[in-house]
């Protein structure tokens, strides 16, 4: 049976069977949202959005709610009119040290290189997508997965996962400026939550380490811009307990179940 591609992927690159987690028996009903996330259609927020705009149908009728129970073996679920099918799929999580000048997306209309282009062919067709986003001009720790529930745990603000960045700015912060960044600064999308800012000398050219618990667009750059500094280099080195370590820029590794569990255990650091 043909199946749809994960949300956000080009329609022509990966028409293949989608699969769901082996623990779903198909006999018990499960919420539509869980079914679609487990089938690899994308992260929870993307799937909720797709249901809201009417892209999902159950037994020929447009789905109205992501909580509606579905019977995986009996109900006919379609996405953009194409059937979503049902087999067990291995979950995979990859840590990449993102180099400069790659887009954090699965595909680009203008043909620019994306973080998926770094992976060898054996990783194609597994429904991998980036967890959150690093700017084109940011390097460092980026996770790629096909596990929508994990993505939710890693990105939802209520879990407050700490993300540490090394920053190079064109100057030296005063004590007052450092405290301001730590307390929160008003950006055009609201006040930033408390952060940690440390001066560092161990990893040139970076001169500060900044830990934030949010994931707003270009947040670190905008925080520094607010107090009059330009970020000239930015690298993410930690998410939760997971450190980039000595992974070389442009290289990646598969994470073990323990490494993933340890990442999720971290709260405030
Ligand atoms: N903050 C930024 O400004 N850019 C990133 O890529 C990540 C965090």
Description:
With about 270 residues, the protein is an alpha+beta fold. About 20% of the residues lie in helices and about 25% in strands. It has 3 domains: about 1-90, Roll (Structural Genomics Hypothetical 15.5 Kd Protein In mrcA-pckA Intergenic Region, Chain A); about 95-155 and about 245-265, 2-Layer Sandwich (Alpha-Beta Plaits); about 160-240, Alpha-L RNA-binding motif (Alpha-Beta Plaits). The protein has 6 helices and 17 strands. Strands 7, 8, 9, 10, 13, 14, 15, 16 and 17 form a 9-stranded mixed β-sheet that branches. A 4-stranded antiparallel β-sheet has the order 3-2-5-6, with no helix packed on it. A hairpin with a 2-residue loop joins strand 15 (about 230-240) and strand 16. The structure holds uracil (URA).
């Amino acid at each position: 049976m043909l199946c749809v591609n994960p949300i956000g992927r080009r329609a022509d690159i990966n028409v293949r069977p989608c699969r769901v987690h082996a623990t779903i028996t198909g006999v018990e009903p499960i919420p539509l949202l869980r079914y679609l996330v487990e089938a690899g259609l994308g992260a929870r927020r993307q799937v909720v959005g797709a249901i809201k705009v009417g892209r999902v149908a159950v037994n020929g009728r447009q789905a109205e709610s992501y909580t509606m129970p579905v019977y995986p073996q009996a109900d006919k679920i379609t996405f953009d009119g194409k059937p979503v099918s049902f087999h067990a799929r291995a979950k995979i999580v990859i840590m990449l040290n993102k180099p400069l000048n790659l887009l954090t997306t699965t595909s680009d209309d203008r043909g620019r290189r994306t973080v998926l282009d770094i992976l060898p062919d054996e990783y194609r067709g597994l429904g991998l997508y980036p967890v959150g986003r690093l700017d084109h001009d940011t390097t460092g720790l980026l996770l790629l997965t096909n596990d929508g529930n994990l993505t939710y745990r890693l990105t939802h603000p209520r879990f407050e996962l700490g993300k540490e960045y090394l920053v190079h700015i064109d100057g030296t912060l005063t004590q007052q400026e450092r405290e301001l960044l730590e307390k929160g600064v008003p950006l055009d999308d609201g006040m930033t939550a408390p952060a940690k800012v440390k001066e560092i000398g161990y990893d040139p050219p970076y001169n500060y380490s900044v830990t934030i618990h949010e994931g707003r667009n270009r947040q670190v750059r905008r925080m520094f811009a607010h107090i009059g500094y330009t970020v000239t280099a930015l690298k993410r080195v930690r998410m939760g307990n997971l450190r980039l370590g000595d992974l070389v820029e442009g290289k990646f590794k598969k994470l073990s179940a323990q490494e993933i569990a340890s990442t999720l255990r971290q709260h405030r650091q």
